[in-house]
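Crash report, auto-generated. Payload:
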Amino acid sequence: MKILLTGAGGQIGHDLIGALVAGGHEVTSTDLAPRPPSHAHAGGESWQRLDVTDGPATERMFEKVKPELVFHLAAILSARGEKDPKLAYDVNQTGTWNVLEACRKTAVKRLIFTSSIAVFGPPPSGPLPDPTPDDVALHPTTMYGVTKVAGELLCAYYTKKFDVDCRGVRFPGLISAAMPGGGSSDYALFMYVDGVRKGGYEAFARADTRIPLMYMPDGVRALLELSMADRSKLTRSIYNIAAFSPRADQIATSVQRVLPDAKFSYSPDPRRQAILDSWPKSLDDTAARNDWGWKPKYDLDGMSDDLIPRVRRMLELGAILSSH
Ligand code: AKB
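Recovered output after restart:
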């Protein structure tokens, strides 16, 4: 199948491209930036420069590639978006509009939208329910969250109005050996990366911080399974998906099972802590489980056992940058 990715240079693209190429698909990876060295994949997918904030360029790219399936990954994440809300608006809001329009105009059959737990925020009436279901009033506190809510609504609108089959997931904080870019959930990933390369990590979150997290192989599988699901089985456009929801100090304990000498401390950054505190503690993903058979494979310790050797290998290969 001909598949196009936007924002392919990010954390999800790193693993998704590999899975798509391994599945024998004809993959066109697009991003504003050149292919990162860590994204070298056997199988030779094509890498094209694309700025999704440029509507005509997005349409020309879709016209040229004629993808049957598009994964829209391009986004400015929560922490970076609060530093530059205009950039977050342009990439996340205008970019999503441009991608949807390009899909409509070039008759793309299916679009996968990547939403986030950042669509949630504490309602005026009190805390979010724990676990948080798909359908609660959405009160995002970040520009990233605001634009993801709008993206979710646009996704449903284009499906109904223009028959662009748009569907998506709300990702928890994703953890993998590839470097993230500007997220508030990054403390969890750095407990692994810095646990290996520096023997410890001072987290920018409190020890009792608890948000939904997921290991990247499960996240990639969710995207692939949802993209192949029978439309008639789907009762909604956007689905909560869940894996595990540990406290930050429980992640430390899990890492220390494998790296007993790793030291962790907590020095909360008020801006990022406020974002983390506004998100759900855990998610109810019953609809995803019922409609398309979603089920995570990895729990926290399963992830630690698999990820730590991977981080070691990537550091040996020099595929993880030396600073953050
Ligand atoms: C972020 O922290 O902004 C992202 C997300 C949870 O969507 N990783």
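Post-recovery validation: Residues 53 and 95 are 5 Å apart (CA to CA).
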